[in-house]
Specification:
binds guanosine-5'-diphosphate, 6 helices, six-stranded mixed β-sheet, Rossmann fold, alpha/beta, globular, binds magnesium ion
Length: 174
Amino acid sequence: HLPKIALVGRPNVGKSTLFNRLIRANRAITHDRPGVTRDRMEGQVRSRGKQTFAIVDTGGITLDAHAAVAQGPEGIRGFEAEILRQAEAAMAEAAGICLVVDGRDGLTPFDEHLAAHLRRAGKPVLVVVNKVDGVEREDEMLAEFHALGFPLLPVSAAHGHNVRVLEDEMREML
Ligand code: GDP
Ligand code: MG
């Protein structure tokens, strides 16, 4: 069995886009519609001369964020509970965890909620601040995420910025 790194985070932060970048294939499905991804897709990250490892994308094709929101607070709570359940399952079998957040949205209460769970998991955690597409506002976009108390790495899954650095940081967590 290959050691695993889990990608966790709220819907639409870019977990699946990042997953696809990392495995350089299209084994995870990305959509513009939030929350539509298969539950726990797994892929391998291979680079010449470096350790191969597995990454797990969480998200759940069974989850429909729009339907949950339409159901009101009850639906949203159920939806968040399901994300948390999937994240916990992935976390349990992972050597390290990447908490993916959206640098354009900024820090949200649900990010803080997930971070609190990760702190208790006692495994290495890296906060991956995605959608940092240009370098000019990088420090500003990162600033509020320091409050989570984990190391941070800005990336752009869409443009590939820092994705190789992320790979190496992931290997450090194995
Ligand atoms: P997931 O729900 O966390 O798996 O998120 P997805 O990978 O499905 O991406 C959600 C949306 O964010 C899609 O519209 C992506 O095209 C977009 N997205 C992902 N990564 C980036 C990025 O680095 N920059 C920008 N601007 N958009 C991104
Ligand atoms: Mg996804």
